[in-house]
Amino acid sequence: MTSLREMAPDRLAELRRVGLSWRSSGQASLHGPLLRLAESLDRAFRLLATAGWDAEEERHPASLPAELLQRVHYLHSFPHQATFPVRLQPDEANLDEFRRGPVVDPDGHLVLTQLAPTRDVLTPAACHHLYAQHESSALDAPLYLTTRNTCFRNEPYYEPLRRQWSFTMREIVCLGSRSEAIGFLDRGRSTVDTLLKHLGLDVDWCVATDPFFRPLESPQYLMQRLEPTKHEAVYGGDLAIGSANLHHEHFGENYSISRAGEPAHSACLAFGIERWLFAVVDRYGVQPESWPDPASTMQQMVSATGGQWR
Amino acid sequence: MTSLREMAPDRLAELRRVGLSWRSSGQASLHGPLLRLAESLDRAFRLLATAGWDAEEERHPASLPAELLQRVHYLHSFPHQATFPVRLQPDEANLDEFRRGPVVDPDGHLVLTQLAPTRDVLTPAACHHLYAQHESSALDAPLYLTTRNTCFRNEPYYEPLRRQWSFTMREIVCLGSRSEAIGFLDRGRSTVDTLLKHLGLDVDWCVATDPFFRPLESPQYLMQRLEPTKHEAVYGGDLAIGSANLHHEHFGENYSISRAGEPAHSACLAFGIERWLFAVVDRYGVQPESWPDPASTMQQMVSATGGQWR
Q1: Which residues pair with B21 in a beta bridge?
Q2: Which of B31, B64, B77 to mutate to test the interface with A (most CBs of A within 10 A)?
Q3: Which of B301, B184, B176, B185 has the alpha carbon at shortest distance from B243?
Q4: In sequence order, what are the beta bridge partners of A13?
């Protein structure tokens, strides 16, 4: 199973002091200063989405049908990362057997009995819902959307705020022509750079690939190597706090979304909220008074442009 | 497996027009007017929590350890409702077998191979995280908390906004003495009644019990029958949009939370956001201009009392 990467005890104690609770499952609870910072970050990204592209907000469920994810071969590419929501077979004999126990063994593992068939996968990336939602659309203008979700990724190890089994992802997506998708990413990256500069956070934009299972067997991985389509904003040398992704017609073709009669291109900007929390605390320390307020910063950026971003 | 209860096609078409997308898994996506209403409702409940009791907000993960839930025998009481997050055994042979397929069968069901042991249960009610979070606390004053989470409950059937596999629950919790817990519920119910009156929503407060598996074998169910501890705000004769619950020392004892040296009593107010959406649309129809704005309504209620609620 998975293990926890040791975080320096001093660092973990500091994060606790500003509102982190850490579960050995690889999940974080937030309250106090860290929760307020997380909310301010999300408001900043929503404002970026609205002021930049008038993107419409959507809220999607915690899971989505495997059949939809398989349109883009998700489970072939990332079977090691997926988490599935399962239920017990609902017949009374099976439920009674489960209840007879031990239910939970001495190691804390559930002792499950017969499972009901399941169709769903817990959200692996927030934007998957958006392509599925707009399946079979014929767009006569670029479509800009934004959504936030709790995402699940099984990993070999977990580390507070840096690498979690479940975490919060805000995304902004463009569906349009190739030039619209590229223009969206260019402007998005440049605005994110300005935001980061105002927040005092240094990042390097690096070419990256997704963590495919058996990458050399994956045409998508080979494509990512041939033509860089994923760039990550890397803080402190090793922590990707955001990414800018060009998908070409991958989602447009597989979800039958067209733009001016051709398969739509798509692109997304993704932000890992917990990792931004880590970066701010790493940069400014544990006095919340010294932290920047990302939502106010973004509001000032919008005001300074007189709303002329679009 | 579960089935869908038929909603009148006209009603479903109306809900779609104001921003509902409905998945056959029993889950809702929101955008446009319904999403804005959902956000306003949650702001109203947060304001109620803050203005009424200075309750601290916490944000918790999507799942919690079964071992924690078993302190209150949750899986004995509600095995039929639980959903578990599971992963494949991570060895390469097992992942290869899964990928060889079919991965998803013609009915849309996943064809899973060997599963890794799992410890977690997807959140069944938002407040469970709060008792676990404050385990072993010795309180010298009542503790008021609020949290929102996506909750999973497996049901025999699903119906849009009314009964969902996953849905959004906002809760306000009091941990304190018996009189503090009872006082919290009294004031909470009365404030919720005022809010409902201003919103033009009629409810009846009804005595209810939780949906125990084999209720007659459950001491907790028998206790709920002997002394009513759960009251539901029922809209339209059959839709519980909120509940007020007195837990006595149930959580205080099992999580070792004390108040003035005695096991703490607890109580919670719970709001099912999607059900409030249904009630507003049922009452006011599909012209969002005619809907009330719950956050403004609550803000006016707070202003009218001059902040003297506490």
Answers
A1: B29
A2: B31
A3: B185
A4: none
Cβ(B196)–Cβ(B298) below 8 Å: no
Cβ of A35 within 8 Å of Cβ of B65? The answer is no
Using CB atoms within 10 Å of the CB of residue A54, give its burial: 0 to 12 exposed, 13 to 18 middle, 19+ buried. Answer: exposed
CB contact under 8 A, A110 and B129: no
Search chain B and give the residue with CA nearest A145: B31
What pTM, to 2 d.p., does this model score?
0.96
List, for residues B63-74, the tens digit of each pLDDT value. 999 999 999 999
Report the C-alpha gap between A112 and B121 in whole angstroms: 11
Q: Which residues of B touch A152 (CB under 8 A)?
A: 62, 85
Question: A118 to chain B: which residues are within 8 Å by CB?
Answer: 109-110, 112
Instruction: Give me the interface pTM, i.e. the ipTM.
Output: 0.95
One-letter amino acid for residue B33 of the chain: P
Are B61 and A30 an interchain contact pair (Cβ–Cβ within 8 Å)? no
What is the token pair recorded at B308? 């003297």
For residue A97, give both structure tokens: 């057997």
CB proximity B150 to A under 8 Å: yes
pLDDT of the residue at A91: 96
Domain spans in chain B, listed from the N-terminal domain onward: 3-82+124-304, 87-117
CB contact under 8 A, A95 and B116: no
Residues 39-78 of A with CB under 8 A from B: 56-67, 70, 75-76
Does A58 sit within 8 Å of B62, measured CB to CB? Answer: no
Task: State whether residue B23 sits within 8 Å of chain A by CB.
Answer: yes
The answer to whether the peptide bond before residue A102 is cis (omega within 30 degrees of 0) is: yes
Could you read off the pLDDT of A106-144 as tens digits, one per residue? 999 999 999 999 999 999 999 999 999 999 999 999 999
Burial of A307 from C-beta contacts in 10 A (0-12 / 13-18 / 19+): exposed
Q: Is B177 exposed, middle or buried (0-12, 13-18, 19+ CB in 10 A)?
A: middle
Contact A95 B85 (CB under 8 A): no
Q: What pLDDT, in 10s, does the model give residues B152-169?
A: 999 999 999 999 999 999
* Residue B264, SS3 per DSSP: coil
B3-82+124-304 — its CATH code? Answer: 3.30.930.10
Helix H or strand E encompassing B288: none
The mean predicted confidence, pLDDT, of chain B is: 94
Regions of chain B with pLDDT less than 50: 1-2
Q: How would DSSP label each residue in B224-245?
A: HHHS--EEEEEETTTEEEEEEE
Contact between A99 and B116 using a beta-carbon 8 Å cutoff: no
